[in-house]
Amino acid sequence: MKILVVDDEPLIRLGLAFQIMELGHEVVEAGSADEAIGELERHPDIRLLVTDIDMPGSMDGVRLAHFVRERWPPVALVVVSGKLALGDVALPSGCRFFEKPVRDELFRDAIREMIA
After folding, report:
1. Is 41 in contact with 13 (CB distance < 8 Å)?
2. List of residues 6+ apart from 101 with CB closer than 8 A
3. pLDDT, tens digit, 9 for 90 and up, residues 101-110
């Protein structure tokens, strides 16, 4: 399965991508919402988006999640943040939220569950 990881911090993005690759999935990476939209257009087989909230560019991760829900409804969504708590944002239906640093086991279990 192909999963898109979006984070403007390369080391954090690499860490999330590594956890996903350990589960046997292919990872596509993007450093902004704009790059993520391009990757979704190039890779119609992406089934899960993992995005940070606080990113530069035309939209943050919450707006990206809503955009993806509207344009690519089958894509599962995970939003992560080190600055905001879940109560601070309105996420699309079915979206999962994790605070950074993401706990490996909980994150992996959520990925397995969402793509099962």
Report:
1. no
2. 82
3. 888 899 999 9
* Tokens 């606080």, located at residue: 54
Nearest residue to 80 via CA among 25, 1, 19, 2: 19
- Residue 4's identity, in one-letter code, is L
Nearest residue to 65 (alpha-carbon basis) of 95, 98, 102: 95
By residue range, what is the domain housing residue 12? 2-115
Condensed to tens digits (0 to 9), the pLDDT of residues 26-60 reads: 999 999 999 999 999 999 999 999 999 998 889 99
pTM for the model stands at: 0.93
CA-CA distance, 89 to 85, in Å (whole number)? 8
- Tally of domains within the chain: 1
